[in-house]
Amino acid sequence: MKTFLEFAKLKLNVDNRLVMVYCVLYFLWGLGMNWFGAEVEIARFTFWWQVITCYILYMVPISLLLRGLPFHMQYAYGLVAMGFLEFCGYWFQTSCAYTNNILDQLFGIRNFSLGMALFFGLYFPLGNWAANRIYQLVFHKKTSSDL
To answer: Which of 19, 118, 120, 128 ranks highest by number of CB atoms within 10 Å?
Structure first.
């Protein structure tokens, strides 16, 4: 456990501007996905502010921990993280899946949460790539994951 805490402290010790890029990016991404899920009646959060708890307070730190790892490792660890999030969201009913939505029709109702976790696991490698690119463009700096 001590080794993980040392690793986490090192990975989370980044420029505050980079953290802000992640927060803005993930907040907008979360609002967009929540809106899209509701519009096409796939799934949505019970409350809009869950975008903050899920995308910023949960996903941003995980993204920072996974920065610099190869794509497949970010996806694999992200899949585990999103599996727990999806499971808890539907168990505690803080996420609402629409009955007979398009994913249920394509993959079956028993595969809905798994499909969501498989999709959202991509957020971590894609989010890290996007956040690093935005940070470089705005602040003209290279991040430690780019070195």
So the answer is: 128
Write down the pTM of the prediction: 0.90
Question: In angstroms, how far is CA 129 from the centroid of its own chain?
Answer: 13
Q: Scanning the structure block, which residue is given the tokens 């109702």?
A: 109
**Helix runs in 13-122, H state only:** 16-39, 50-51, 60-66, 71-91, 102-107, 112-120
* Element containing residue 96 per DSSP (H, E): strand 95-97
* C-alpha distances out from residue 17 to 9, 21, 23, 135, Å: 17, 6, 10, 8
- Distance, CA of 112 to CA of 38 (rounded, Å): 15
Quick: pLDDT tens for 29-79: 999 999 999 999 999 999 999 999 999 999 999 999 999 999 999 999 999
Is 102:42 a contact under the CB 8 Å cutoff?
A: yes
Nearest to 103 by CA among 27, 36, 32, 29: 36
